[in-house]
Amino acid sequence: MKQSTSNQLFEKLESIRNEIEGVEYWSARDLQEIFSYKEWRNFEKVIKKAAISVENTSQSLELHFVETNKLIEHGKGGKREVKDYALTRYACYLVAQNGDPSKEEIAFAQSYFATQTRKQELVEKRYLESERVTARGKLTETEKVLSQLVNQRNASFGYIRSMGDKALFGGLTTKQMKEKLNVPKNKPVADYLQTTLIKGKDFAASMTNDNIKTKDLNTTTDIVSEHSTNNNEVREVLIRRGIVPENLPAAEDIKKVKRRLNSEGKKLMGGKRK
Q1: Is the pLDDT reported for residue 243 higher than 80?
Q2: Mean pLDDT of the chain
Q3: In this structure, are 190 and 230 located in the same domain?
C-alpha cells in the first residue's frame, strides 16, 4: 500500500470517528463506504458475523453493537431513515477481521482499530507488520504444497528449496544467508526476511508448483531447474527495481512480531470487558 493511500484511509477513519461520554464509536454506514461494500446487505452480513464472535465470549453484545438509524440523501434533496449500527472500536476491529481480506481498506482498518492510539505512525507500523505476518503464512502454505508435490515424485524438497534460495540470493546458500543475517541455525531464513523477499519467495514457489503439474516434472534435476529459474526471474525483477535480495538487512523474527500483534489484539478485547 502506498503511503498516500494509508494516509487517506487514516484520515477517513478519523473523520467519521464519534465520541459520546468518552466512548468512541463509528457508524456502520460510514464504514461501509470506506470498506468499498456497494450493498448494505452484504456489509450487514459481515457485521452479524462479527456480532456472533462477541456472543461466543463473555462480553456484552449490546455494549459494542448498538442498532440505530441514519438519515441519508434520497431523491432530489430528500432524506430518509435507514438502519445503522453504532460500533465501538472493538466492534469495528471484529468487523474488519470478518471482512474481505483482499480489500486493502479492510487490511488497514484491522490495524487502525487494533491500535489503541490515534497516532498514524503506530497504525502504519502495525499494518506493515500484519502484512509481513500474512505474507509469511502464505509462503508456508505454498511451500507445503511444493513439499507434497516433490515428495510424490520421490525428489528432495530440502535440496530443491536450497537451490531456489541460491538463485534468489545471487549464489549465496541458505546457510550463508543465515550467517549474513544472524539467523539462528534452528530457524528458517524466511522468518527474518523483509516482506518483499517473503512475497518473492512465495511467487517463485507458486510458479514452481504450477509448472510441476503442467509440465509433468518428475525428477529432482527437472524440479531444481524449474525452481531455480523462477527464483532467478524474481531476483532480476527485484534488481531492476533497485533491490538486491542478499543486501537487504534482516527483519525482526516473524514469530516475535506475530506474538506482539496477537498481544495487542488481546489487550483490545480485554480492555472492553466489564
Answers
A1: yes
A2: 89
A3: yes
